[in-house]
From TrEMBL:
<dbReference type="InterPro" id="IPR006089">
    <property type="entry name" value="Acyl-CoA_DH_CS"/>
</dbReference>
<dbReference type="InterPro" id="IPR006091">
    <property type="entry name" value="Acyl-CoA_Oxase/DH_mid-dom"/>
</dbReference>
<keyword id="KW-0285">Flavoprotein</keyword>
<dbReference type="GO" id="GO:0006631">
    <property type="term" value="P:fatty acid metabolic process"/>
</dbReference>
<keyword id="KW-0560">Oxidoreductase</keyword>
<feature type="domain" description="Acyl-CoA dehydrogenase/oxidase C-terminal">
    <location>
        <begin position="198"/>
        <end position="344"/>
    </location>
</feature>
<dbReference type="InterPro" id="IPR013786">
    <property type="entry name" value="AcylCoA_DH/ox_N"/>
</dbReference>
<comment type="subunit">
    <text>Homotetramer.</text>
</comment>
<dbReference type="InterPro" id="IPR046373">
    <property type="entry name" value="Acyl-CoA_Oxase/DH_mid-dom_sf"/>
</dbReference>
<dbReference type="Pfam" id="PF02770">
    <property type="entry name" value="Acyl-CoA_dh_M"/>
</dbReference>
<keyword id="KW-0443">Lipid metabolism</keyword>
<dbReference type="Pfam" id="PF02771">
    <property type="entry name" value="Acyl-CoA_dh_N"/>
</dbReference>
<dbReference type="InterPro" id="IPR009075">
    <property type="entry name" value="AcylCo_DH/oxidase_C"/>
</dbReference>
<comment type="pathway">
    <text>Amino-acid degradation; L-isoleucine degradation.</text>
</comment>
<comment type="pathway">
    <text>Lipid metabolism; mitochondrial fatty acid beta-oxidation.</text>
</comment>
<comment type="similarity">
    <text>Belongs to the acyl-CoA dehydrogenase family.</text>
</comment>
<dbReference type="InterPro" id="IPR009100">
    <property type="entry name" value="AcylCoA_DH/oxidase_NM_dom_sf"/>
</dbReference>
C-alpha cells in the first residue's frame, strides 16, 4: 500500500467489519459503544503495523465521529452515525493553503441563499478525502465577525461543486491519501450545520485537542513497532562471535528507547484518562503529542542504526516507520505549537 499510495479496499472494509471505525459510537447507532481510551488503544496497535492505516482510523474516530456525537443534531446523528460505524469514511476539512497552524485564518466562506448556504473555498492536506463519504467542512458564514463566524457544515461526498484533487506525494504515511478539496458553489440546507452557527472554531479547538492524544497513540505504536521489528534481529545477528543484543552498548541504547516509549505511552493514556474524567487536557494532550512524536523519530532512527545496512533497506520495514514518524511533528498542531501551548498553560499555574 505504501508503494501504491493508497489503501487496499479489503483493509478498509475489514476495519469496518471489525468494529474499529465506530469505537465510541453508541450501540444504538451500530457502534462498539466503547471509550476514548479504547480508541487510542486501537490506534496504537494499528500503528505498530502501519501508521498510515492507524491515522485513517484515528481521524475517523477521534475527530469525525466525535464531532457528530458531541455536537450534531439528533437528525444528523441518526443519518450519519450508523453509516460512520459501518461503511462510510469521514474527513475533516479545516486546513487551507493560507491557514495551517493559524487555522482560523481560513478563507472558505458560506453565504446565505434563501434558506440554504453556498460554500466556496479550497481545503488542503485533507486526510481520508479520497475515500470519504462525508466531509466536515469549516467555512466562515459571517466573515465580518472574524473567527466567530466559522461554522461546521456536513457535506456528503458527491454533492455538486465538491471535488477532491490528486493526492500529494509525501515522505511517509503514503497510503493515507492527503488531497486538496475544492468547494465551488456547494449548496447545503440549514440542517447541514453541525452544532451552532458560528461555533465551528470552538468545536475545532476542542476536537483537535482530543485528536492530538490520538496522534500521540499513533506515534507510540510506531515506536513500539520499530522495536518489535528490531529486537529479533539483534538477538539473531552475530558479530565477533556474539549476539548484537549482548553488547552492553547496544543494551543501553535499547533500554533508553524502551524507557522513552513507555514514558510516551503513559503521557498519552494519562491524557485519555483526563478526557474521560472530564478534566482539562489541553496541556496534557500537547505534552503527549509532542513527546510521543519526538520518541517515534528517535526510536525509528536508532533502530535503523542498530540493524545496520539491512535496516536501511525496505526488507525489514523500519525505514518506512522512520519516514512515517516525521509527520508526528507536523499534523494536528506542529511541535512548536505544542511547545507554545505547554509553556503558556504551565506559566498560568503560577
Amino acid at each position: 500500500m505504501d508503494d501504491a499510495g493508497r489503501f487496499d479496499a479489503e483493509v478498509v472494509d475489514g476495519l469496518f467489519e471489525g468494529g474499529f471505525m465506530g469505537v465510541e459510537i453508541g450501540e444504538e447507532y451500530d457502534g462498539s459503544g466503547s471509550s476514548f481510551t479504547a480508541a487510542c488503544l486501537v490506534v496504537e496497535e494499528l500503528a505498530k503495523v502501519d501508521p498510515a492505516v492507524s491515522v485513517m482510523v484515528d481521524i475517523h474516530n477521534t475527530i469525525v465521529n466525535n464531532c457528530f456525537s458531541n455536537w450534531a443534531s439528533e437528525d444528523l446523528q441518526r443519518e450519519w452515525l450508523p453509516r460512520l460505524a459501518t461503511d462510510t469514511l469521514g474527513a475533516f476539512a479545516l486546513s487551507e493553503a493560507s491557514s495551517g497552524s493559524d487555522a482560523f485564518a481560513l478563507r472558505s466562506v458560506a453565504r446565505r441563499d434563501g434558506d440554504d448556504y453556498i460554500i466556496d473555498g479550497e481545503k488542503m492536506w485533507i486526510s481520508n478525502s479520497d475515500r470519504a463519504g462525508v466531509f466536515l467542512v469549516m467555512a466562515n458564514a459571517a466573515p465580518d465577525k472574524g473567527y466567530k463566524g466559522i461554522t461546521c457544515f456536513v457535506v456528503p461526498a458527491g454533492t455538486p461543486g465538491l471535488s477532491v484533487g490528486k493526492p500529494e506525494e509525501k515522505l511517509g504515511i503514503k497510503a493515507s491519501a492527503t488531497c486538496p478539496v475544492r468547494l465551488e458553489g456547494v449548496r447545503v440546507p440549514p440542517s447541514a450545520v453541525l452544532g451552532e452557527l458560528g461555533k465551528g472554531y470552538k468545536y475545532a479547538i476542542e476536537i483537535l485537542n482530543e485528536g492530538r492524544v490520538g496522534i500521540g497513540a499513533q506515534m507510540v505504536g510506531l515506536a513500539q513497532g520499530a522495536l518489535n521489528r528490531t529486537m529479533p534481529y539483534l538477538q539473531e545477528r552475530r558479530q565477533f562471535g556474539t549476539r548484537i543484543s549482548e553488547f552492553q552498548g547496544v543494551q543501553h541504547q535499547v533500554a533508553q528507547m524502551v524507557t522513552e516509549v513507555e514514558a510516551a505511552r503513559l503521557l498519552v493514556f494519562n491524557a485519555a484518562r483526563r478526557k474521560e474524567a472530564g478534566l482539562p487536557l489541553v496541556k496534557e494532550a500537547a505534552m503527549a503529542k509532542l513527546f510521543a512524536g519526538q520518541v517515534a523519530e528517535r526510536t525509528a532512527s536508532k533502530c535503523i542504526e542498530l540493524m545496520g545496512g539491512v535496516g536501511f533497506t525496505k526488507s525489514m520495514g523500519v525505514e518506512k516507520l522512520y519516514r512515517d514518524a516525521k509527520i508526528g511533528a507536523i499534523y494536528e498542531g506542529t511541535s512548536n505549537i505544542q511547545l507554545n501551548t505547554i509553556a503558556k498553560l504551565y506559566a498560568a499555574e503560577f
